Amino acid sequence: MKNFVKVASLAATLALAACQTNPNTNVMPKEDAVNSRHVANTEHQVWKNGTDDLCWQTGYYPDGNAVVGCDATATKVVTETIVKQKSTTINFDANALFDFNKSTLRPMGQQALAALATALKSVSFDQTIVVGHTDSFGSDAYNDRLSLRRAEAVKAYLVSQGINAASISTSGMGERQLLVQPLTKGTRAARIAAEQPNRRVSVDVRGVVIPANQVDRWNNFLKSVPGVNVNVVK
Length: 234
Known about the structure:
By secondary structure, this protein is α+β, with helices and mostly antiparallel strands.
């Protein structure tokens, strides 16, 4: 046993000396400092020969950790690509969230927002902006209040699902951003039905940070939530 230790020590000493005396020797890939079979400097950089194709081995750990650039079994670590989206806007149909002229969340609306909260907790993001909208029925003042109440109801539910309240801001746009123009003819029921796209809540998630291989899954999950459509700005 003592003879083996002496031989191994001698091999390591000779290998290190060869590296230090060879002016063409290059310091190459990092080694694993634990149980390494390669000669390395104090910064755990493996010594290589002048032609840059051989790594100096210590002889102490013939079955030690493999090192990229020295051992055929070693592989490079692949760095995961991260994507940051400028904005992901989720538009909730008011029918999914609220009854006509109401700001109390319906059960279907709660399910949709619970799904959104689950998605938000799976990523990091900078800010969430919740904006309520109404149709053209009612006065401007009334619609401003109704749209804000709707936005606040959405925020309160997201917070109840574990989303940080400080990351959510709310506002009400009333009827100032109509998607479709109101009908001037027809029954009241027909005119109410025609303005359904105007009755909505938008949730704008800013600065979503997500691994590149998860982007499609994130977007598709949001699109699968009943009563919503999604627009992504990269």
